[in-house]
Amino acid sequence: MSLKTKRTVKNNKMCSFCIRESSNKPSIIYLVCSDSEGKQYKISTGRKILYSQWNKRKQEPIINSSFSNDANKGALTTSLILQHLKGEYLKYIYYLCSTNETFNINILRAKINSIVTNSESEQNINFDITAEDMVKGNIGKTPSATKALDKALKAYINDSQVKESTGKVYGLIVGKYKRWIVDVYKVDGMSALKQSAFDKYVEYLKAQGKSNADINKVAIIRKIINSYIAKGNRYGLTQIIFNPLKDKRLSEDRVKVEILQDEIEKLENIVLPTEYQLYRDIFCLAIYTGQRVSDMQNIAVGEYERKGDFMIVKTVKREKFAYIPLSKKVEYYLSKVEGKVKKQSDVNFRNTLNIKIKEIFRLAGIDREITFIDAHHTKQTDKLCNIISSHFARHTFITRRLREGYSFEEVGKMVGDTGRVIEKTYSHLTADDHINKLKAKARKLNNEVQVAPKVEAKLTSLHQVSSLSKGTVNFDDIIDTLKEMQGGNISEAVEYVKLNKVKMISLIEYYTGQTKGMIINDDAFCQYLMVLWGRLKYEKLA
């Protein structure tokens, strides 16, 4: 028997009951005990009795004729309950001696509360030790952690009804923990399933150079310990706490790549075996819609709404609406995939698509070398066909839209995400893209600065030409002036037309060379003239 166990038994060899002195009303009876360090605890028994009816030396209720029949009946019930509680306390001490576990007041309190309340909803805490759960050769015969893990894993797989392949993966993860218990921790007892041992295993994995993604797989070990072994604080075990480790790589270092235009053309033009054609079309549709694989499956089975030139999809992950422009490419690939996909789990659909896409890229010879930082924080270079996944299509769509000039918020509306996420996660704009965007902005500002004086000068001279009659109006000069105003404040253009007393229908006929009722020219300036005409007619009605 270890010194620690001797101290536990010595300090916990007996418990006592006590009540507070009160002359006129019943008081609560408490069970008093102490841990291996001599710290005392008081646990309410839930029973009350008059101080005058309590035998302090014997620590039991008094039953005699000086008390009423009801008081004696209550004292008898209290006495039986206290005997039961004392018996459970002694069983707990025996349990500590048999398992080398340390005293845990929470376990004892839970057991006493379950007896006091007589509640079936309370966890059934059993202090019995069975021979088949013992490890041979250990002093006190502690229960085997490895056997407990095997039983718990089997129960979890049965209860969760996971796939056979998933169950095998769980078995490998738990098997590694069992080998660590035997080879490194070297104590195949319940202490190997405590928080302290679990934390040591996590540190061991870190020291072995495992990635955060690999370490996070221990969550399944935590789950089966908490749900099947430590439930109800059995064996003195508490719930394991584990916070998944975060990926500390910079966003730009992770594997996410824009698919270039020439690569898209190779993908679209390659003649593929029949088994790959549908998956190529799904991936191309993702490139032109920017949707996640879970939403692509919904689109393929027809779960979307059309509204004018847009497709509206409620995204699975964000539960936000995505407003997708129905371009010719989108319409084409919709006709290729819609109704040809059988609904399945998102995981299975994604895994199948990713496997097929890798093979399609190999067949198409799309093998551009990509440099990235892997989950082990190591710089890697690999071919695009080896690392491609369905999510690359979303990154490609978003980057292309941003390059075209859409804002982060506008692109977010198209893909069902927030502008902040688009900016932080999905943009692959290069340095040249940012420079070109800034140059375009500068050109726009310069044009506005140059046009403003011209417009102002034209408006200043309006009064000089306002007396011109229809016959003296030079439509070419009017058209030149309006072209300079196009894109600016339309109110200034309206004012210019009114001051020159220009009849818009005559101007439009002159510009297009067409008669009234047959104007079909649709260039940008003609549309601008039509807008001006509509504005003038509205002002007359007003």
Word description of this protein:
The protein is mainly α and 542 residues long. It is 55% helix and 9% strand. It is built from 23 helices and 10 strands. A 3-stranded antiparallel beta sheet has the order 1-2-3. Strands 6-7-8 form a 3-stranded antiparallel beta sheet. Strands 4-5 form a two-stranded antiparallel sheet. A hairpin with a 6-residue loop joins strand 7 and strand 8. Helix 10 (274-289) runs antiparallel to helix 12.
Inertia-based shape: elongated
What does the radius of gyration come to?
40 Å
- According to DSSP, the number of beta strands is 10
Q: Which ranges are low-confidence, i.e. pLDDT below 50, for 5 or more consecutive residues?
A: 1-11, 119-125, 131-141, 462-472
Helix content: 40-55%
Q: Quaternary arrangement of the chains shown?
A: single chain
Helical region count?
23
Biggest sheet record: 3 strands, antiparallel
Distance between the termini: 103 Å
Mean pLDDT: 80
User: What's the arrangement of strands in the largest beta sheet?
Assistant: 1-2-3
Strand content: 5-15%
Helix-strand makeup class: mainly alpha
